[in-house]
Write a structure and sequence with these properties.
Length: 238
């Protein structure tokens, strides 16, 4: 049998150690994700770590370190497709980025163990778990800090509601006032609102905006002829 010819006891023992290490480290990372009821939990992180270890170990045993490096590059790119599956977008809300990043790190842990770098895999596991747990209070503390106008990188949209007859005039007026206040306009969009009304929405270039100044511009435009309503909306950058 070909199996008997290719079987190598010490190499097989080495593979067992790599798989077990990947399983253990993946379990530690996945347990935290499972506890927080994330999309990719315990089993997913374990399978990602063990799978990465298996591919790297197989390549190393067959063709040596050079091919193992090549397989690692494929693992790095391939795990991106799996990570994309846990990212969900709901309007301007994006969820699952941290879970996808954790899967990426689990693959890195598996690649370390597949290369017999158990200490490095264990160290990386500690850093991943620390990033998902110890940094959480810091994130919550930062999120509670009130946002100050000029300190916020966000996307701002200024809207005017008018009738069809005044669309062109008010569009030019809106751009002129925003440019004069040094709020560069990235895009203008017209949207029909009802039978005879049109909303003019100007998206500002992503930057830190002085909200007080922007409010003064809105107040001035509100007093303009044929403006039924003027407002602005801010969407924080992801």
């Amino acid at each position: 049998m070909h199996f008997i010819q290719t079987f190598n006891g010490p190499a097989f023992l080495d593979t067992i150690v790599s798989y077990l290490s990947a399983f253990l480290f993946g379990t530690l990372i996945g347990a935290e994700r499972q506890y927080r009821q994330r999309t990719a939990g315990l089993r997913t992180n374990v399978l990602v770590a063990v799978g990465a270890a298996a591919f790297v170990d197989l390549a190393q045993r067959i063709a040596g370190d050079v091919e193992a490096v090549r397989v690692i590059s494929y693992v790095v790119s391939g795990i991106g497709f799996l990570g994309a599956g846990v990212i969900m977008k709901d309007g301007t809300n994006v969820q699952g980025l941290n879970t996808a990043a954790t899967l990426w790190c689990s693959a890195a842990v598996g690649a370390c163990t597949g290369c017999d770098m158990l200490a490095e895999g264990g160290l990386l596991t500690v850093f991943v778990i620390a990033g998902n747990t110890l940094l959480r209070p810091l994130v919550n503390a930062i999120d509670r800090i009130p946002l100050q106008g000029r300190g916020v990188e966000a996307s701002y949209t200024v809207s005017l509601l008018t009738d069809r007859a005044h669309v062109d005039t008010l569009r030019d007026l809106l751009v002129a006032h925003l440019e004069q206040a040094r709020f560069p306009v990235a895009d203008i969009e017209l949207t029909e609102r009802g039978a005879d009304q049109v909303e003019i929405a100007a998206t500002l270039t992503s930057t830190a905006v002085d909200r007080a100044e922007l409010q003064r511009v809105i107040a001035h435009l509100s007093a303009a002829h044929a403006v039924a309503h003027a407002s602005w909306l801010v969407t924080p950058e992801a």
